[in-house]
Amino acid sequence: MVLSGTRPIGVIGSLGNPLLTINMAKLIIKRGADYYPFGVPEWNDEDLKTPLIIPVQDAKVAFFIDKRNIGTFKLKRKLDPIPSGRMEIEFERAPSDLVRGIKSKTSNSSAAKRIYSIYSEAMDIFESALLSAGALKYMYWMRKITEYEFFGGSFGMDKVTWSLVPGNESGTFQPKIPSSRKINPLYKSNQLMTLRKWQKLQDAIDNNNYPKDELLELYKMRNKAYLFDAKTAAIEASIISEALLRKYGLSVLKIQGYSSSKIKKIKDELTFNNLLNVILPLSLTKTEFTKISSAVNNVDTLRRIRNDLVHGNIDGNSVDQEDVKKGTESAIKLVEFLKSKIEHDS
């Protein structure tokens, strides 16, 4: 039915601007979603109709949880440990340039980047709300998939679909996103558990030759540096390194005859920088320092990154992951060296 004084949408589009038809329709983009950070108890059908809606840029992102047969999981409670669902990005008025990009078989990279940026921003807000309002203290890592993975990757497991409402236009959006084609680091040769490496593990356990205490924490920070969290790795590894350097520096001063009162007076001067770049080199022989000079330089870079983060000169996204990798590797070497020196001197 057409109201008096109006024309059907199609007629308006044909007489005037053809984009009016698009601009008066909603654009909805859908994709599957898995929620790794939390489990979900049994929701009824009505509960499942309730999305989490996040306004992002000029769109709204709705996260839904889908129903699964949670009885298939061998748990004492009716619980879905890894709930699945879907996300819907809705544009109240379909942006004409975005619709053109989605429909295009070639010039669609800008459309893909726009959709992915909305997803990425929504995930940041989702994670923030889970940690605060959701009060999740034992939340697993909230991983954002890459743009390549978002649009199906090489396996095409999750299709990105679109539709215009009202109207009967819909389709699948599969832009050509270049892949890095790198081997998954989990499957590189140095990460595979060979029989020889398995035997080395046994030898280390039999000889009680494995890291403990602060050294173990540094290995964990190295793991973070390589995986996903260079910011945390830089800060934590710096704290651990500084703490052991301070312990070493105090022992050196005592050996040199400094009294407790004298040490107390100069305590404020025992900064990370002075401990690493002054007291440590001066306390070692030339041969000793040559062995660890490279590690000292890399830890010094880590120290500067930590300072820049703490003072707001850079944010987590600006941290050089390669510098943090080298820094955490070197922190392990430095702490091992310092622990042996402290044990020897005591």
Instruction: Give the helices and strands as they follow along the chain.
Output: HHEEEEEEHHHEEHHHHHHH
What strand line-up does the widest sheet have? 3-4-6-1-7-8
Strand content: 5-15%
Number of strands: 8
Count the DSSP helices.
12
Main sheet specs = 6 strands, antiparallel
Task: Give the integer mean of the pLDDT values.
Answer: 83
Find the structural class using helix and strand composition: alpha+beta
Number of domains: 2
How much helix, percentage-wise, in residues? 40-55%
Q: In brief, what are we looking at here?
A:
48% of the residues lie in helices and 12% in strands. By secondary structure, it is an alpha+beta fold. The protein folds into 2 domains: 9-173, no CATH class; 185-345, no CATH class.
Structure write-up:
The protein is an alpha+beta fold and 346 residues long. Helices cover 48% and strands 12% of the residues. It has twelve helices and eight strands. The strands form two sheets. Strands 3-4-6-1-7-8 form a six-stranded antiparallel sheet, covered by helices on one side. Helix 7 (213-227) packs antiparallel against helix 12. It is elongated, with a radius of gyration of 29 Å. Mean pLDDT is 83; it is low at 1-20.
